[in-house]
């Protein structure tokens, strides 16, 4: 199983690798930032590291 990178939205390192293969770059960071701006980020609560 690949490492969970984003606890808020459930992205793993494998998701990021596949995103790069499909798009030539990772669009996941962009999606996370858009969700964060919309108030959908809960890193402090969901990530065991609190960030």
From TrEMBL:
User: Gene3D superfamilies from the xrefs?
Assistant: BFD-like [2Fe-2S]-binding domain
Which InterPro entries does the entry mention? BFD-like_2Fe2S-bd_dom (IPR007419), BFD-like_2Fe2S-bd_dom_sf (IPR041854)
Source organism, top-level taxon: Bacteria
Domain BFD-like [2Fe-2S]-binding, first and last residues per copy: 4-44
From the Swiss-Prot or TrEMBL record, give the protein name: BFD-like [2Fe-2S] binding domain
Q: Which organism is it from?
A: Desulfomicrobium apsheronum
